[in-house]
Amino acid sequence: MAHDDVHLSYLPLPHVFERCIQMAAMTVGAKIGFYQGDTLKILEDLQALRPTIFPSVPRLLNRIHDRLKAQVAEAGGLKATLFARAYATKLAGLRAGTNTHPLWDRLLFNKIKG
């Protein structure tokens, strides 16, 4: 974490993980933005704040994953096929130690990141 990082705070302050992240952010002078208070709107908050770091918990990551899968399923057809191919390629790259892909990042994953 560095002074130019931005953190979206959405966990309850009594949550030990959130306290550690906020203390680290304050220690280096990073910015902390707070969510609207509605966990169903966290994706909107992410798009508005555009955090550079996003420490999270499995529950929220599962919610994001499920929403993304539902959108892909709803799109169907060619979009769903392309997403499945992109996802498989990206996953194979991650397992091989590469976290970027010149085609799929540009066409798909950078849009998901916002």
Features:
AMP-dependent synthetase/ligase domain-containing protein; ANL_N_sf; 5 helices; two-stranded parallel sheet; long-chain fatty acid-CoA ligase activity; 2 domains
Secondary structure elements and pairings:
Layout: E1 6-9, H1 16-28, E2 31-34, H2 42-49, H3 58-75, H4 77-95, H5 102-113
Parallel strand pairs: 1-2
Helix pairs in contact: 3-4
Describe the structure.
It is a single chain. With 114 residues, this protein is mainly α. The protein folds into 2 domains: 1-56; 57-114, no CATH class. The chain is built from 5 helices and 2 strands, in the order βαβαααα. The chain has helices at 16-28, 42-49, 58-75, 77-95, 102-113; strands at residues 6-9, 31-34. Strands 1-2 form a two-stranded parallel sheet. Strand 1 (6-9), helix 1 (16-28) and strand 2 (31-34) form a beta-alpha-beta unit. Helix 3 runs antiparallel to helix 4 (77-95). The model has no long low-confidence stretch (mean pLDDT 87).
